[in-house]
Structures are given as structure tokens and as C-alpha cells.
Amino acid sequence: MGLQQMSFSASMMIAFIILIRCAAINRLCKKTFMVLWAAVVARLIVPFNLPSRLSVYSLAENLAGFVKGLIYTKPLETAPAVFIKTAAVNEQSGISVWSVVWFAGAVLAVVWFVSVYVRCKREFDISLPAENSYIDSWIKNLGGRRRITVRIHEKIMSPLTYGIIRPVILLPKDMDFNNLTNLEYILTHEYVHIKRFDCLWKILLTAVVCIHWFNPAVWAMYVFANRDIELCCDETVVGIMGEGKKSDYALALINMEETKRTGIPMFSSFSREPIEERINAIMKIKKASVLSLCAALALTAGTTTVFATSKAVPELKNITTTTAVSARSIDISSKEYTSDSAKLKIVSEDVPMKIKDIQWWTYDEYKSWLDNEKKEIEKQVKEGTQTRKTADDLIDSYEQTLDVLKNGNKVSKSVDGDKNLSITINEADLKKLDENVVLSVKYDTEK
Fold it and tell me: Does pTM top 0.70 for this prediction?
């Protein structure tokens, strides 16, 4: 699966999640959206297909087939040859323009994010240890394998966390350290970020944005996923502190939002935009019911199944070696020629269909035949033995084959004597094959 295909596939899922988020952000557990964003990230970085009959692509294909069946109920009287345009792999030197543009954009994105991170990290490293008895006591009661430090910086406006192996909680110097209630909320919030490895999450999201910088949907995912990291953290804090303290926690959030600021990439901040969404979400947090948990589970499973999977692959059935179809790509090194529906294997056994024995159409030859065939088809239409719609479809399929020949491909005149079946192969790839090589076609779908 190519990068653009991966990006497009994920875009549909991103759009759906954003719609669900807008409609039910305060009705579902916030962890639901984190799981959904994780599925999107997986779709954006894993270059493999997971076929499913419930995939949106399978459903769309089935719907299209159903609609087509309602519109065109009369079958073709004469089956056209199986001539499909190919996109065979051509051996070309050099790098495509798209590859150059993508690489340049990715490098610029990486440079920007890294420069912001390094600049902030250097500034944060000059912070001073927090000398506060409450904070010291709070750290001692944490436990855990990772050593957490709390430091103070005079230039930051709101608390934040950075570091994965040796996490640091950074607090503003002008914060009211005498307000122990607010301090507890802030430290608990940042500790939840550390415990959930949210900084690692942010790095992964940033990496995905750098790879798919050309896709606006991925940038939208970056914004909303970062918001949901904060909402999920707020939900966890309320769960720890108790629902009775939601108002106090929201008030602590408001107090820390005296100065608006944009979140720094790859850092987890106590105060992030939009503050209104977070406060509303905090005040509407309720203990999850069995029904809401089931709905969240069903939504997660359904969304992932429908949008993160690819079109179902037909089951292998009734495999023969005499039926040929056009293929999509060729790989001479692996001696295999494949398409979505069939696999054309290049074998060395002494059986029919040797390359040297196959007869191929030339463009002029096929065009001359098609001109005569059009006259014959028009004659059948006038006599009433062929419908106008059937005739147009048949001529269109033949003209597609003519385009295939025009674009440097070879089309066989027949396969095993069957005039309605043929092989389509790129001419450049055909020249690489030994004339004694045999093409053995295995058809994978039930006809």
C-alpha cells in the first residue's frame, strides 16, 4: 500500500471520528477517542491491508453493484474480451517529482518540530528544583520505577511535563504554592500524563504529521488528538479525586488559564486550548454506565472494522490454469504477475501458452478490426438482436482495449482458443521474458 493510499484511507476515518467527537464528546468515555486515534495512527504508519467484508470499501463496492444491477437488468448478449488497462511497473531511472516534493516537505516538518523541541528543552533545562515541603512529600508517596522531579521556571505560564525515562514536571515560578488544593490537582494531572506516557504519544503524533504533512486531515487529527489527550487526563484525575471535586478541579484549571498560549509540540501541558471545552467536559463527567461502556466498545470496534480495513479479497475457489485476465503490476524478479482478482505465475514447465506461441494484437491491426466490428454491431442494433445500451457498452470495452495498445501494452488475441479472454501485459516487461517461458494463469474468483 502506497503512502497516498494509506493517507486517503485514514482521512475517511479521521472525518468520521471528528463527526462522532462533535456529537458525543461528553457522552462517551474519553478513552474511546484515544483508542480511535490509535487506530488512525496505525492506519497511517502500517503499510499493510487487513481485508474485511465490513470495510467501507467492500460496502461501497457491494452498493455500487446493487445499484448497477437495478439500472442494468439485461445482460450483454456478447461477452467482451477481458481487456483491462494495466499499470505495469516500468523500469525508469530517476526519482518522481512527487517523491522529491514529499521528501522536502517531510524534512521541513521534522526540522521545524525538532527545532521547537530543542529550543524549549534547552530553556527548560535551566529551571530550578522546587523547594517545597508539600511537593517533596507528594513525590515520596508516588512510588514507581521512573524518578519524577518537579522544577520551577520563571518564563512558563502554565504547568507542563516533558521527558519519558526521566520525566520532569515544570511549574511556573509565579504560581500560588500556598494553595495546596490547586497544587494537588496540578501535580496529579501532570502525574497522570507521565503515567500514561502522553509525551510518547505526542512524539508519535508529531512523527505521523511529518510523514503525512501533505494531508490536511492528518493535521486536524493532530489537533483533536492532542485535545483528547488532555480531556482523557482530566477524566482520569476526576476519577482519582472523586466526582464531588469536579468544580474545584475546573476552578484550578481556570486559575491557571490567566494567559493564553499555544501548546508546545511533544510536551504535555496542564493548560491547553480550548479551555472552554475542557471545563465543559469536566463538569459533565459521570460514572460510566454499562450501557455507555457497551456503546463505546461497539463504536470503537465498528469504526475500526469499517474504516481501518481494506476491501475483502475473494476466496480462492475452483482454481484452473487456462483462464487469463489482465493484471495490474508485474515483478519480473519474483516471476509473478498479479491483479486484484487473479495471479499470473511465470513457470518453466513444458505446457501450452509459451511466450513465443502467443499471438499479440498490434494497434493498427486492432483498430482495423474494431472499425469492422462497430459496423457489425450497428447492424445488429438495427435488426433488433442487440440493444443500444449493450452495443455502447461493448464498443466502449473495445475502445478501452485500443487505448491499452496505444499506451505501450500488449494484448493477446486469445487464450487457449477462447476469443473472449486475453492477457494484457506491458510491452517493456514482455521483452524481459524469455520466449520459452510459460505463463500459467490461476484465476482466484468464482466465475
Answer: no
Q: Which three cell numbers stand for residue 283?
A: 463538569
DSSP state at residue 163:
-
pLDDT in tens, 361-410: 888 888 888 899 898 888 888 888 888 888 888 888 888 888 888 877 77
Neighbouring C-beta atoms of residue 27, cutoff 10 Å: 13
Question: What is the C-alpha to C-alpha distance for residues 208 and 219, in angstroms, rounded to an integer?
Answer: 9
H-helix segments, 216-362: 216-241, 246-256, 275-283, 290-307
Q: Copy the grid coordinates of residue 364.
A: 493498427
In 3D space, the residue among 116, 139, 115 whose CA is nearest the CA of residue 129 turns out to be 139
Model confidence over 298-345: pLDDT tens digits? 888 888 877 777 665 444 333 333 333 343 344 444 444 554 444 454
Contact partners, residue 261, CB within 8 Å, separation at least 6: 157, 158, 271
* CB neighbour list of residue 112: distance below 8 Å, 6 or more residues apart: none
**CA-to-CA distance for 103 and 97, rounded, in angstroms?**
10
- Compute the distance between CA of residue 409 and CA of residue 97 in angstroms, rounded to an integer: 24
